[in-house]
Amino acid sequence: MMIRGFVKRAASLAVLSVSVVVVMGVDAWAAKRVALLIGNEKYQATSQLNNPANDVGLMKASFEAAGFDSITTVVDVTRQDMVKALRDFEDAATGAEVAIVYYSGHGMEMNGTNYLLPVDVRLKTDKDVEDEAIPLDRVQRSLEGASKLKLIILDACRNNPFEQSMTRSISTRAVSRGLARVEPESADLLIAFASKAGTVALDGDGKNSPFATALSKYLVEPGVDVRIALGKVRDQVVAETNRGQEPFVYGSLGGAQIFLNIKEVNITINQDQQVAPNGQSEAAADWQNIRDLADADLLNLFIQKHGSDPVYRMLAEKKLKLLNEAKANATASPDDIAWEALKQSTDGAALTRFIERYPESRHRAEAEQQIAALEPRKGINISPTGKDTQASRDCYLLAGEPQSMPGFQGVNFLKIDAQRAMVACAQAVNENPDDTMLVNLLGRSQDAGRMYADARQNYQKAADGGNMWALTNLAWFSVYGTDGAVDVEKGRSMFEQAANAGNAYGQASLGWLYREGYGGIAQNYEEAVKWYRLSADQGYANAMATIGWFYREGLGLPQDYAQSLAWYTKAAEAGDVSAMSSLGWAYQNGLGITQDYKQAKVWYERAANVGDAYSMALLGWFYDVGNGVEQDYAEARRWYEAASNAGSAYAMGNLSRLYDFGLGIQSDAKEAARWAAASVEGGDQGKYDELKGQPNNFTPDFRREMQALLKERGYYTGPIDGDFGASTLNAIDRLKNRG
Predict the structure, then answer these.
(1) Cβ pair 216, 60 in contact under 8 A
(2) For residue 634, is it left (φ>0), alpha (ψ between -120 and 50) or beta?
(3) Which terminus of the chain is more solvent-facing, meaning fewer CB atoms within 10 Å of its CB: N or C?
(4) Cross-strand partners of 606
(5) Dmax over Cα atoms in the chain, in whole Å?
(6) Structural contact between residues 458 and 451, judged by C-beta atoms closer than 8 angstroms
(7) Spatial CB neighbours of 468, under 8 Å, sequence gap ≥ 6
(8) pTM score over 0.70
(9) Shortest CA distance to 535 belongs to which of 564, 560, 512, 559?
(10) Dist. CA 498–CA 385, nearest whole Å
């Protein structure tokens, strides 16, 4: 029983991200992006600054390179001119999708209100502030017409030069260092401070401030969501100033990705489908993130990208055909079709995708209820630093470590929707950068999206802060050589550190190393059981399932089916999918209990509803042969199709037989041949052996269609006669090996 990433862990779920980028890229060419850049340095009544004009020039070059439609720059402006610039920009921002105001210069805070200082301010007394300075609210108002992103960037957290000289006419007026914390009420508004509230920013030794330098590097990085970009800015400034300055972002956005640089986002269709170390191809990963949506546009984009993968091309074409038939017959709307596959799902990412894609669906309320049931329970403080925000909850929903909190199921690594998770977690970290679990989950999202350098950086940051989940994730990088050389011993040492600190994930990971005898570690079932037991005693579901496996197999523990069932049951009730399917197997085969197909079906259905392809395929087999249920080929086909969509090559092979003999559906030899080929290419040894050794199990029409398919793929040059001679058998070998 493997846990989370205890298959080769460098799996990618970059997935729909590419399709999303394509969709947004197409739409965004028409999107209007505008920016106003203000730099004040030559102050008339106080100390001058060195960098603002240079900072404005640097940011202008960045926005120009990103293809912004309009960039207005003003330098050393009086209050009158500054108000005019904001008023003119208010018109420019109306109807724009993205509007940005960047300000470099002096700023100040008084009584919780932030002000930007024009170059003609005198501020002899505190009474002058409201008349001579520009309140931040006025800047916000200039952005209100933008529809997707309103961004204010303030490189204005320097020391207030008037703090000591200004006469206080009212004793209750408080003036503090830096700028005051803000909580934007406007939708889709972010306010980025060069340094968090109550602290001051640095000018730096160069021609530009550290904040402007980092902004120019990351803010318009092609294909990078603005929240992730601002997180990178924070990290660079913190590192370059030796923690003397920490930028901070206030406000929040919705779930959709927002790219500031659209001009340079190039989508490359890679015909060499990359396969992760766990055997999961990029096409398989991408398919996971669109298979639960009834969306012709996404299916066509998927085919455009992955057309060279015959298995997943066929799955996409099959779904596209069904959608077109449903549309032609007006039998169901796309959201109805999509919801049919999700109505019992516990996949938070899939439910989130559904709401994003079908915001007006009549099923939205049900989807939201199911999502709420998957989030950490209300009342549990999910943040050790005390900040429980919607972004934090979304981050946990999309990338949470399994069983990291009481009653929280979490997300299997291979189920992470990388791009959505990265957006949520980046925003959560921007809001609460000291929360090491959120930093770890951002790393986990980046890991799933194959952004290994960023993932390592965040894992290391969280581990340095004492987060043992992050240390364990970092250890897997060494065990599998995810981003460098394999060093299993180093990984084992980190597992031990996390395990000895009491982390259940670290304990189970260490147990896995000893169970598998991986990478030169001596196989030791007794040692493995010890660590799995410690993890299981903390309620870690996969560890409980693995203890069940040890008892079932009699390895490291005496064989004891009753104990095996007890542990599997505890693990299944805690949400472990492998335990659910193992219980189904135990009831199906009478392992330590009376054989009971109906009870087996109950457990397979529970696992199937969590997306387990193995259980879906076995449910199809139950209906196929009539085990524990009335034989029903149509229902068998439904489950086989669901399992095939989830990647089961075994189910694809059985679908081939149903189409070949017209069981539960009209006979279609061509479709049967396509499913058989997909089964072989997907690795089903049984279908391969049957084709090679028992060709008479198939109809003559099937055999001819199979030869035609092999010829079309370039594997066969003989006659289309239905005779599986040596050349046909050789072609089947080539099919299996993809050439």
Answers:
(1) no
(2) alpha
(3) C
(4) none
(5) 102
(6) no
(7) 497, 498, 501, 502, 503, 505, 506
(8) yes
(9) 512
(10) 21
